[in-house]
Structures are given as C-alpha cells and as structure tokens.
Amino acid sequence: MRHIVIKAGKVTIRARLLPTPTADRIWDALPMHGAVQTWGREVYFRTSLSPDIEPDARAVINKGEIAFWPDGDAITIGFGATPISKRGEIRFTSKCNVWAIAIDDVDQLRSVYAGEDITVMEAEFSEPAWQGHASAAPLVCAGRQGRLQADACPADDASG
C-alpha cells in the first residue's frame, strides 16, 4: 500500500493512495511542491501534471477524499462547502479524479492560507504507526531518493 504526507503551512496530513491511473501519475512525480490556493473550504495547488479525466470522476466528493482537478491541473482537498456547494456537500467546479484518502482529519486545513507552501511526498512508515489512533505519525518522511526531509514531517508529539 502506498502512503503520502501532505504538508501545507503548519498542517500535516497523511493519506493512502487508491489504485487509480491518477494516483500512479502523482506517485511517479513525487515529491511535488506548490503554493496553496483556496476556494471556500478547499485547498488546492497547481501541478505540472495533466492526467485525463477518469470514468468515475465526480464533482461532489466526501470529506477526506483527495482529488485531482484535470481542468486546472491541480491537486485539491475539499474539507467543507465551496461557493457552489449545496447544503451539506463538498462540490468542485468540475469533475475530479479521486486518487487518495486522508488518514488524518482534513478539517485541520482550516488553518492553511493562500500563498503558503504545500508539499506532497512519499511517506515511509511503520505499519502499526498508521493504524488505529489518528494522531499516530509516520516514523520517517522521505523524498523519492530516500533523504529525510524533517521540515515536511509531522511533529513527534500528539499535537501535530
């Protein structure tokens, strides 16, 4: 199973990749860096990738799903209403490919602001650290070449 760490501002979220073509493209391109953009309760950043829209792409997602917005070449995480959401939904402007599921609470993204740095990188971990308690942190965060990148790793304490 493939896992990533997303660090945006002071927030770190772990996620599990799904078996999709978009997940494969993103995995092969890691690490990825950008500047946060926001739209309602959505955090996204532009990438150099341009995956095709997948057959199961959708505009309405569930909290915790991490998507790729093909129309904007962007990774996007919705954690609440956007300006076009109907009551109780997370709605993007167009269909997106869901490629990962957050392990940690995406509501943490409320404290992330436009312009802050965002990084998506491969996570190396001990399997028990990722099971059970939501605040358990991976033991090591590594770039594609296996270098420790402590600035993109979650804090060792339970407060994140």
Short structural summary:
The chain has one helix spanning 21-29; strands spanning 3-8, 11-17, 32-35, 37-38, 42-46, 58-61, 65-69, 74-78, 90-102, 117-124, 140-141.
Itemize the secondary structure elements and their pairings:
Layout: E1 3-8, E2 11-17, H1 21-29, E3 32-35, E4 37-38, E5 42-46, E6 58-61, E7 65-69, E8 74-78, E9 90-102, E10 117-124, E11 140-141
Antiparallel strand pairs: 1-2, 1-10, 2-9, 3-10, 4-5, 5-8, 6-9, 7-8, 7-9, 10-11
Features:
mainly beta, 11-stranded antiparallel beta sheet, 11 strands, disordered C terminus
Could you describe the 3D structure shown?
By secondary structure, the chain is mainly β. It has one helix and eleven strands. Helices cover 6% and strands 38% of the residues. Strands 1, 2, 3, 4, 5, 6, 7, 8, 9, 10 and 11 form an eleven-stranded antiparallel sheet that branches. The C terminus is likely disordered.
